[in-house]
Automatic annotation (TrEMBL):
Residues at which L-histidine binds: D90, L91, T92, R120, Q134, D138, R309, Y313, Y314
Protein name stated in the entry: Histidine--tRNA ligase
CDD domains xref list: HisRS-like_core (cd00773), HisRS_anticodon (cd00859)
Keyword Transport: no
Subunit structure: Homodimer.
Signal peptide positions on this chain: none
Residue ranges of the TM segments: none
PANTHER family in the cross-refs: HISTIDINE--TRNA LIGASE, HISTIDYL-TRNA SYNTHETASE
Natural source organism: Rhizobium tibeticum
Length: 511
């Protein structure tokens, strides 16, 4: 066989690793969820803004932890003018660029929200994707922690608007100044100790997973897990380990005025060794006072000095939305669902472009993760989309097709989801099979005889399917509700509405 006779190589359809195709149900669930989130943000006086998927690489900064990945965890390419551009890895860095570039036109404080995809050049794994959606809200230009307190309250309101009840979530709040102060107090201040500081923060972040003793091992010599794998520790001495744990080990927050002498002494010991920690605790006290005055008790917003947050650009209060109910993981174990979003104050991010301080705070919701949580709770997809009414095609001439198209448009104008059959109309059985597989609630049929009389047949496909499973003889058929009716063309819309309403009532009773 010569080259000309060779068959062309068939292209292989392959989904890139770490990416997913989204189904109609998932898209609708996300739309339902984001509409509720948007309503809360708007209620708080926030306005939408949109930034592009690409930014110049230097504008994004180097804040991702995956430094061993190509481009340090981001996807990058070189433009035709040899400038490097990267897909955004979050929605915060692009906002900082947007604010700096439009600073003279923007009204401060600038209160904005946006939803969109972000991209991480990370190793994919179960539930870990390279493209995912975030929904953020930020306030730029507000230096006081009342802006941080409001973010926490808005996050709590958002979760409740989505149907997550009190007791099933908590917003945990800390301050990076407290953590920075702890590190400074044990001699880990300065640029040359940045690596050690990061390892201490990573160890603290494992408190929920490994417990206090596990964190002590990570802060000291290291920890061996159940499989025998060893994680090297930070190498702190016993005194400094206990000093760190005295601050971050989980314990109930006690408001100013209610602290015991021992608690005051412990706080004084830390704040005497670090001004940063003193400032951090003062800000946490202010946040607690603000949210409590607004009616948000510790079962909803809780001060928790173990909250770290991973990104390095946080400079003050940090907060995390955690779901407290149990789910079964891929190993079949019962685990707490955990974090679905968080954020904090990032006063240095806009300032990188400005040469002057620009305070900012905000939070981000992980849309896919939160959607998984809502599905677990049965809070999504309850308002199921009704499949379209199908207008079948009996004759393919221009006049007949025009009539079918007109019927379809009349249904649509009345707010009814409808479609005219687009396949091979000559095999009518295929049309009803299509309607069945699609889950269409109603089929409209008009052949030559019906057209001559000015009528249409309306087939209730849901009732028809039920009857076909129940009817055993002709007497049962006559007693049952008729699944197909003939009505005047002028009554088409009214009759379809009536049938759809009856089906909705049946679903309601069944549910």
């Amino acid at each position: 066989m010569n080259d000309k006779q060779k068959k062309p190589q068939k292209l292989k359809a392959r989904l890139p690793r770490g990416f997913v195709d989204r189904s109609a149900n998932d898209i609708r669930a996300v739309n339902e969820m984001t509409a509720k989130i948007r309503e809360v943000y708007e209620h708080y006086g926030f306005d939408p803004v949109e930034t592009p998927l690409f930014e110049y690489t230097d504008a994004l900064g180097k804040f991702l932890p995956d430094a061993d990945r190509p481009n340090e965890g981001v996807f990058s390419l070189q433009d035709d003018d040899e400038q490097w551009m990267s897909l955004r890895y979050d929605l915060t860095a692009p906002l900082a660029r947007h604010v700096a570039e439009n600073f003279n036109e923007i009204q401060l404080p600038y209160r904005t929200y946006r939803a969109g995809y972000v991209f991480r050049n990370e190793k994919p794994g179960p539930g870990r994707f390279r493209q995912f959606m975030q929904f953020d809200a930020d306030t730029v230009g507000a230096p006081g922690v009342q802006a941080d307190a409001e973010m926490c309250m808005m996050m709590a309101d958002t979760l409740e608007a989505l149907g997550i009840k009190r007791g099933d979530y908590v917003i945990r709040v800390n301050n990076r100044k407290v953590l920075d102060g702890v590190l400074e107090a044990i001699g880990l201040g300065g640029d040359d100790k940045a690596g050690q500081r990061l390892n201490v923060l990573r160890a603290i972040d494992k408190l929920d997973k490994f417990g206090p003793e596990g964190v002590r091992l990570l802060l000291g010599p290291g920890r061996k897990d159940d499989s025998g794998d060893f994680t090297k520790g930070v190498g702190l001495d016993a005194t400094n380990i206990e000093f760190v744990m005295s601050v971050v080990e989980k314990q109930p927050y006690v408001a100013v005025g209610n602290r015991s002498a021992e608690q005051v002494a412990k706080l004084n010991e830390l704040t005497e060794r670090s001004f940063s920690a003193k400032e951090g605790f003062s800000e946490l006290d202010m946040i607690h006072g603000l949210v409590t005055a607004a009616g948000y008790q510790s079962d909803r917003i809780k001060i928790d000095p173990s909250v770290v947050r991973g990104l390095e650009y946080y400079t003050g209060p940090v907060y995390e939305a955690e779901l407290l109910f149990d789910v079964t993981n891929e190993k079949g174990e019962k685990v707490v669902f955990g974090s679905v979003g968080g954020g904090g104050r990032y006063d240095g991010l806009v300032s990188r472009f400005m040469g002057q301080p620009v305070p900012a705070t905000g939070f981000s919701i992980g849309v896919s993760r939160l959607m998984t949580a809502l599905k677990n709770l049965g809070k999504l997809g309850q308002a199921d989309t009704i499949e379209p009414v199908l207008v079948t095609v009996m004759d393919g001439d221009v006049v007949s097709m025009g009539r079918y198209q007109r019927m379809t448009q009349e249904l649509r104008k009345a707010g009814i989801r409808a479609e005219m059959y687009q396949g091979n109309w000559k095999k009518f059985g295929n049309q009803l099979k299509y309607a069945d597989r699609r889950g269409c609630p109603v089929a409209i049929i008009q052949g030559g005889d019906e057209r001559a009389e000015g009528v249409v047949q309306i087939k209730d496909l849901i009732e028809g399917k039920r009857l076909s499973g129940e009817i055993e003889d002709n007497a049962s058929w006559r007693e049952a509700r008729v699944a197909q009716e003939t009505v005047a063309e002028s009554d088409l819309v009214a009759k379809v509405k009536e049938i759809l309403a009856a089906q909705a009532e049946d679903r309601k009773r069944a549910g």
